[in-house]
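Dear all,

This email documents one entry for the complex benchmark we are building for the journal club exercise. For each entry we list the sequence lines for every component of the assembly. Then comes the predicted three-dimensional structure of the complex as a token string, followed by one or two observations. Please use this as the template for your own entries, and keep the labels exactly as they appear.
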Amino acid sequence: MGSWGICEQEGWRKGPWTPAEDKLLIEYISHNGEGRWSFVSKCTGLKRSGKSCRLRWVNYLRPGLKKGHLTPQEEGIIIELHALWGNKWSTIARYLPGRTDNEIKNYWRTHFKKKSKPDQIKQEKKKEIIIKQQQQQTDDNKNIINKIPLATQLLTSIEEKNNKQEAEIAFSGIDENHHQFLPMVYQDTSSWSDNFIPMDCYLWGGLWDLGDDDPNGCSKIGTQNQDNYYSYEGEYAKGQNGILARLVRGTIDILLDVIKYQLRTPMDSEDAVVTVIVSEVDGLPVEASRQEILQQNATKIKHCNINRTLHQNATKIKHIIFSR
DNA sequence: AAACATGGCAACCGCATCGCA
DNA sequence: TTGCGATGCGGTTGCCATGTT
């Protein structure tokens, strides 16, 4: 193949798009809508393949695309979801409105897939993002108690009662009556039963395990059902704080997916139930009678319904309870 | 100032999947 | 059920701008 822009084998032009080509493509889509890409060249005279037209539209011309650097929040989401799903760029992109799979893929390769000194670079980047997120959260959470140590701001409790698995995440903060949410008591790992998933450690590992050995971060604490569990010694508070940041920003469905992943099949079972209790939306308190806004069979939850109404930053979640 | 290295990113390629006849 | 075209996805390439030596 020759240099880009002049290769016209098979009749198709390749290489960078010109403004004139963009204009033709935009006009075509404005009249005919997306899809039927192979007809673009026939209708417009563009010497571009259908695939090329689709790619140009999806990655560059489509309205609503964000330009510029990713925010620390977006970076954090990418890290978390990549730890969860791996190179499922299109899936990850669905959680980042305005960002394309190509952009996320490029970002990941640029920032995390350095061939030289991979561990060092990942560690440095991770620390950088954690610091950014903490600074951002400090700004966002002015009304949330910050006098208590980070380690107690968010604690997780998992209990097994009467053959039921129940995992509950409690968030400290201030409710609509300005009462402090009391964190749950962290349960000692020695009490975990054989068929029981230690969600907090699992969650932590899933969020931050970047794939390779992570000597300064996650440490393996045990194996259960052929799965590995991790704790994050020394930075436990930071990690929990990071999860809280996600929730405060209303990305509830991400958390649900993460926790579904942690619990593996239990959330797909018929009798699994998810309960989400929200105390504040967009800075306005939710009446006590309406706080429990979602409680339904987990099999019906693909993406948490409340996410669509809780996109603003000021959402406060009191509890999310998973049980079966 | 020139040569080289690196980072960022748009675009291409091949394969997988989907939908329809 | 099968074949085929359209579409989607992830990996890769290569250009260009910037930084380094």
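Observations: Chain A has three domains: 9-61, 72-138, 143-323. The first helix of chain A runs from residue 19 to 32.
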